[in-house]
Amino acid sequence: MKTGLIIGLIVLAISGTFAQKPTPPNIVVFLVDDMGWQDTSVPFWKQVTELNRRYRTPNMERLAREGLKFTNAYAMPVCTPTRTSLLSGVNAAHSRITHWTSPNKDKNTDYPDTTLNPVDWNYNGLSPVAGIEHTFHATPLPTLLSQNGYYTIHTGKAHFGSAGTPGSDPKNLGFQVNIAGSEIGHPASYLGTDNYDRPGNGKPNRNAVPGLEAYHGKDVFLSEALTREAIKAVEVPIQKKQPFFLYFGHYAVHTPIMADKRFIDKYLKAGLDSTEAKYASLVEGMDKSLGDLLNFLDERKLTDNTVVIFMSDNGGLSTTPLRGGQEHTHNLPLRAGKGSVYEGGIREPMLVRWPGVVKPGGVSEQYIIVEDFFPTILDIAGVKKPKVVQPIDGKSFLPLLKNPAVNDTTRALVWHHPNRWIPAEGPMLHWASGIRQGDWKLVYDHRTAALELYNLKSDIGEQQNLATAHPDKVKQLALLLTKQLKTWNAQMPTFKKTGKAVAWPEEVIP
Amino acid sequence: MKTGLIIGLIVLAISGTFAQKPTPPNIVVFLVDDMGWQDTSVPFWKQVTELNRRYRTPNMERLAREGLKFTNAYAMPVCTPTRTSLLSGVNAAHSRITHWTSPNKDKNTDYPDTTLNPVDWNYNGLSPVAGIEHTFHATPLPTLLSQNGYYTIHTGKAHFGSAGTPGSDPKNLGFQVNIAGSEIGHPASYLGTDNYDRPGNGKPNRNAVPGLEAYHGKDVFLSEALTREAIKAVEVPIQKKQPFFLYFGHYAVHTPIMADKRFIDKYLKAGLDSTEAKYASLVEGMDKSLGDLLNFLDERKLTDNTVVIFMSDNGGLSTTPLRGGQEHTHNLPLRAGKGSVYEGGIREPMLVRWPGVVKPGGVSEQYIIVEDFFPTILDIAGVKKPKVVQPIDGKSFLPLLKNPAVNDTTRALVWHHPNRWIPAEGPMLHWASGIRQGDWKLVYDHRTAALELYNLKSDIGEQQNLATAHPDKVKQLALLLTKQLKTWNAQMPTFKKTGKAVAWPEEVIP
């Protein structure tokens, strides 16, 4: 009986401590690759679209029901800048990681252009240490979380920096565990029977997915293998009663667009284009992973103390023949897709669930941007005044989580992509900048020095250029964009013919 | 002057000899894999179909203009039986090579069925020597041509027999040269940059295409590499002034359906399903190869003395998700596709050009079948009474080449497929037999013992089963089919439940 009493007292004492200093919540960032704003059965627009009806994402629907939907969440037009902004809190124009990093070190991935010279951007990506050439040095989010008691797990696609630099390995960026992440930006194959590899010329593919040997030769789709491993990894902090940060970066739904056999039949039967059917199966396989994770949290009674943030890293790919159907229609009603500073390239499906803090079924129309994740997640974790080497551009959206009605139309968001992405031309796919303030958006084409103005409230598809009708708005936004880019010491490409730099937006105000 | 006179006399003498004993013509068999009856801009039906408008095959158009079009040419429902019938002159029911042979020896490729036991067919394929288990022993066509002065070249897909048996190597079948042929039935990859291979689990794919090392690592599509090598190989008999037999078995357009980059753009721009666009590019790449070969014959002034026979080995694949679009619509107006004894599985695009013998632009509606190639080609080559170990079922169509109006409605063609092809069920894809006489066709479903009767003249799509309306015709054809199958000692599967064999068609006449 004495022992019982003592144990009882200890339990009371512990409970007391917890009451005063609550355990910080677990945090899951569920980041999908190349998923567009409409690639889901959750409607992010004011109406349910044909694309919403096409895709089947019941677990995203669950997350939307139980959490908060952000209808104006933004990322960068391509993947590395989004990922490094998320981990650093710094805008891509500012970090100079404006484009996707090659798996190989010291390789500028800009496709050669006949008009402009590439800028000397940080094409080796993010670095947790100073002095690495062509990298941006920052104190990464996982490092800070790890220092503050979190067990930090990286799963899936990393793509933060090139091989041979510290940033290529998630374990150098503050992750205590790394599952299948490296310098690669997409998998060579989604198939376990391929060993997640597709060798060419007798050599392993540079995009072979590392570290999933247990699934080699088995009929386990990559999305599934990652999910099983992530759940296994989370068991460790659960046992240790330590809060965890799970960064789950799916390789899906990036190319190669391969069928996830578990889900493809219904899309084929629906008569979908065959590549689009495969794509839809990739989306549903990713959603199944989300569901497995949510179910796991339920089973382990962790749901109430876990924040789940769902996000994608850029707009849906909309070039053919990689996608099926007509090019640049894959993010409708949004214009264009991955690579573009039009909405199709940057607007993302975003959901946040946090029981007890975020009211279920809410919607926030406030625009936010991916560098906001850094200060927000630190806020959620209760990390005050973190010691970081970089200047933070992001703004915490924790207030929005608590009150989705908050509406700030004065803030300006900036995109800057002084790079050429692919051989093909397309709607603002290369060499462009953009700024949004309130409902207004200015887009700047570097090669033609053209400024386009759109009102996103009345024209989400960016079809009506209002630059001529609203010269004052053009001027105001061009000045604001220029000021911000100059403040960040952003890079502008130079013309091949003259050697002169592309003009700042303010210099070309009509 | 004296020398000149002597040379003149020699020339005269040689010419004289030729006049008495003409050089036999060169013979090209251009055999495409899995190409359907409608996968071409050449209309083989009475009207131009949507599929004819989709595909671009200008060189087949040329061949049709300059030669004879067979609108009722038949092969077997799957590839090996067609190929071994062509090389042996024996019907598949008779040779007992009724299904596709595995690259691996002693492997029955029948997919397991819940109702029927597989038959003990010759699943190691064709053999040029006696005593090899599960093979059909025959004297192959190339052996006979080689013995009769032909230089015999094999290019591309062989698939005559399993590895470890003599029939797997075209050089054992009378071919003096073999380019890229082996026991495999399709390429692991069409890409030179893949080395025509797609290793899995760290091992080379069993379907890696052999012998094209010169193109490894190069951006040369398989159809192109084969064409270049075939043309190079033909130089040898040209130099030797020896007639040649070129058997050019394209791997195209079999799966994996990969884009031939040279041709895909227009199909994508036309808004075609993405897999179907790739398929169309495979078709056009194959047609380009035909054009290159025809141009080469022109350049070397060989056109007039070369017979070119164009054929496919079975109907177009019509199952999804391997094909795009709705399943079983890929050979319309014909019913079903590869694997089936309905017309979509067996009717083939066939063209024959032979300047001076075949009148340009002709059409023959006479039905012929692939075992006819054997006696026909021997006739063309002037080989009389060849010594062969096998009984010949085929009938020479040389008279048809000379007079396409010949019309024989008494002959009966037989298909026999006592095998299960794939996991999926589909229109007569498994366990079926068929017979055609005149315009009538009887189809026999082994599992249900159902007899279906169609009139192909009025109903090419086999939509109206006339069995009830024409019991006498059913009876006559069922008796004829049974007689022929029994004559050939054809195999019938047995029921798992009872151990009893499937009834002969004559036993189930209603």
Automatic annotation (TrEMBL), chains A, B:
Cofactors demanded by this protein: Ca(2+)
All copies of domain Sulfatase N-terminal, residue ranges: 25-383
The UniProt record lists the keyword Oxidoreductase: no
First and last residue of the signal peptide: 1-19
GO MF entry, a single one: metal ion binding
Alphabetical UniProt keywords: Calcium, Hydrolase, Metal-binding, Signal
Domain of life, per lineage: Bacteria
One Pfam family this sequence matches: Sulfatase
Recorded family membership: Belongs to the sulfatase family.
Name of this protein: Sulfatase
